[in-house]
Specification:
alpha/beta; Rossmann fold
Length: 691
């Protein structure tokens, strides 16, 4: 079922992403002004550190458009564990956590106060909160690496497509990678768009999730991070800002993806649309292409200068796999089951009638009047006699899982490095240099073509400005006849194609196969060690669930029996019913928790290969830690991200320009198509030269 939602974009998704991934974490005070991408946002209202649930949020006004947005803050583990418990409850329960209800209540309060809320947004847990509100209220939501919805809400809304929700997911984000790998994608409503930002270095693990790096001195965004070794050609900077990697349609501002390109409504080719194209070429496209050119230039110079020393390792090859594996939200919450006081073990230990009020009933002066309940208590004690043992076994199995992860880190990581030493690239160094020489030539070709296209768009824009309304209308209708007379003024298209490269087609493949072989063997060994413990956990959890369901039946009988007891002049019977109701609630909650631990374990078992695969980018870059080739990989991946974006832009331009018959527009169309084709060649060659 598709919900009806129409929203005319004024606040760019990029700005909402930056507000969510950076600004909100700084807790800007009320009435302050936050600047995002040269747009000012006034903070109208704040809700920081006021609610037990841990909800933090702010209301901001776009001073340019007048639109109002609520930005929900993401997980802050240091804050009294409130956010951590909310994250855990998303996995361990199907009930909506308090923070989600508070987020919804805050939205309704702010909408009543300001008459309209145009957007909600957030990162991490904040993204989950924004999407929850969007599902409930049909407001426009933009998120960065969001947490999943509570299971009950996701189930309720499973038949809706949620056109009002857009989730931007970084390719190196540990949370969304794990959620997708763990089979929880059905709990992320809306359109999920992958964005190629971030670096698969462990030190940027958290930044890959929030999308930004903070400058500790200025408390502002650190737009670029340093790469390579100082004093060598590898030394330089790359951009690290999530919103900078969001590709949007030049004319509409809608997200531009492989699926959406070439499918939108065609624009009218007129003065306004050509002005937008010319402006985008000047401010976005050309700048992006120059950045990609700079990244590739660092790679080329590094390969040329380092040669056979490209993969010399200056540091000890170690990888914090323990940190990687524990970052997975499913494994993390399973390990937290024995540690977080409000969850898991502490809850199960409360489910016992062995002491307190229940035990005192046997010595009560009213014992003769409640014989049936006393009999049920005895049966309940018998039913739960094995509960302490099962709880202890569950706790021990989880500790065994933790020890196994540590053992894998210490003993199995060396499998990843087999055959990958200081001579790994020997034998292909000359080919590598020759291949990068081709890349050098071809990147220059693409840059010249893009510059040529930029000049042409500016000239066509100027022609539209000069033409009178009548001629403009004829061109707008695609009939031609207006621009033909001045088409000779358009700069001729640069007719060049990228040169093919015959290099590295075999040598690099062999080394890629070695990396894949090592990873597959490591993955197989890891799964073989974790599987028995996970299956033991599943077995113990099933036994716990069976015991608790038996107890639930007995407690239900006790509730019925207590409802029939009426002792005048004293409150004993009311207290009895209250205590039995409390027991019923505790057993129900324990069942709910164990059922979701069961699902959690099943998902880990079923998707363990996918979970390990999601860590592969971090593992592969760590294999070259301390080498010059590490910088080459980072520069190439960053350049590829930009080139892929630009390829989409030129494909969309080709689509929009293709049906207009005016000669000048056709010239632009053909040149855009040629540029896209050359970018394909360049992208393939950069990928070929990157392990």
């Amino acid at each position: 079922m598709e919900n009806t939602f129409i929203h005319l974009k004024q606040t760019p998704d990029q700005n909402l992403v930056q507000l969510s991934g950076f600004s909100i974490y700084k807790h800007p005070p009320r009435n302050s002004v936050v600047e995002v991408n040269k747009t000012e946002y006034k903070v109208l209202d704040t809700n920081y550190d006021t609610l037990p649930s841990g909800l933090d949020a702010a209301v901001v006004l776009d001073n340019t458009t007048g639109e109002i947005s609520i930005i929900y803050e993401g997980t802050q583990p240091e804050k009294n564990n409130a956010d951590v418990l909310t994250d855990a409850s998303l996995v361990l329960s199907d009930k909506t956590a308090d923070q989600f209800r508070d987020a919804h209540a805050y939205y309704k309060e702010m909408k009543k106060k300001y008459k309209h809320i145009d957007h909600v947004a957030g990162n991490s847990l904040g993204g989950g909160l924004a999407n929850y509100v969007a599902v409930k209220e049909q407001v426009h939501s933009v998120t960065l690496d969001p947490a999943m919805l509570p299971a009950d809400v996701a189930k309720e809304m499973k038949d809706y497509k949620h056109a009002n929700i857009t989730n931007y997911c970084g390719i190196y984000d540990p949370l969304t990678l794990a959620e997708m790998a763990g089979g929880y994608e059905n709990r992320m409503p809306g359109k999920n768009i992958k964005i190629n930002f971030g670096i698969s270095w462990l030190k940027f693990f958290a930044n890959n999730h929030t999308g930004y790096v903070s400058d500790e001195e200025t408390n502002t965004i650190k737009e670029k991070i340093t790469i390579g070794k100082k004093g060598t050609p590898s030394y330089g900077e790359i951009h690290f800002m999530a919103d900078a990697y969001i590709s949007t349609n030049i004319w509409t501002g809608d997200p531009l993806t492989k699926e959406s390109v070439g499918t939108s409504q065609r624009i009218k080719i007129n003065e306004e649309s050509m002005a937008k194209l010319a402006s985008a070429m000047e401010t976005q496209v050309m700048a992006s292409c120059k950045t990609a050119d700079d990244y590739l230039q660092h790679s080329i110079r590094t390969v040329e200068s380092e040669g056979s020393h490209l993969d010399d390792r200056k540091t000890n090859l170690q990888i914090q796999f323990d940190e990687l594996l524990r970052s997975n939200p499913m494994l993390n919450q399973l390990l937290a089951f024995v540690k977080v006081e409000s969850l898991g073990m502490a809850l199960l230990k409360k489910v016992s009638p062995a002491g307190g009020f229940m035990l005192d009933l046997f010595h009560s002066p009213f014992a003769e009047k409640i014989t049936s309940i006393l009999s049920s208590i005895s049966r309940l004690q018998g039913c739960l006699v094995n509960l302490p043992l099962l709880i202890a076994q569950l706790g021990q199995a989880i500790l065994d899982l933790e020890e196994c992860i540590t053992s894998i880190t210490q003993k199995d990581i060396p499998l990843l490095f087999k055959g990958i030493d200081n001579h790994f690239l020997d034998g292909i160094v000359d080919e590598l240099k020759a291949h990068y020489e081709k890349i050098d030539v071809n990147k220059a070709t693409v840059l010249k073509q893009v510059s040529n296209f930029k000049t042409q768009t500016e000239e066509v824009k100027e022609m539209f400005e000069q033409l009178d309304t009548e001629i403009g209308n004829r061109i707008e209708d695609g009939k031609g006849g207006g621009l033909e007379s001045v088409s000779t003024k358009i700069t001729p298209s640069l007719q060049v194609t990228c040169e093919p490269s015959p290099y590295l087609k075999a040598g690099m493949d062999i080394r890629k196969e070695q990396l894949q072989y090592n990873f597959n063997r490591f993955s197989k060994n890891t799964i073989a060690q974790l599987d028995p413990i996970l299956n033991q956990l599943r077995s113990i959890t099933n036994q716990l669930i069976n015991v608790l369901y038996d107890a639930k039946i007995i407690v239900k009988i006790m509730k019925f029996e207590a409802s029939l007891i009426h002792i005048p002049f004293v409150s004993f019977d009311n207290q009895l019913r209250e205590k039995i109701s409390e027991m019923d609630q505790m057993v129900s909650t324990a069942i709910d928790t164990c059922e979701h631990v069961k699902v959690l374990i099943a998902n880990i078992i079923d998707h363990l290969p996918d979970i390990l695969q999601s860590f592969k980018p971090y593992i592969e870059i760590a294999l070259f830690n301390g080498t010059q080739y590490e910088a080459v990989i980072i520069y190439n991946i960053s350049a590829l991200s930009i080139l892929e974006q630009m390829k989409l832009q030129f494909r969309e331009m080709s689509y929009q320009l293709s049906e207009n018959e005016a000669k000048a527009i056709q010239q632009l169309f053909q040149q855009a198509s040629t540029i896209e084709g050359n970018m394909d060649v360049l992208i393939e060659q950069v990928k070929r030269g990157t392990l």
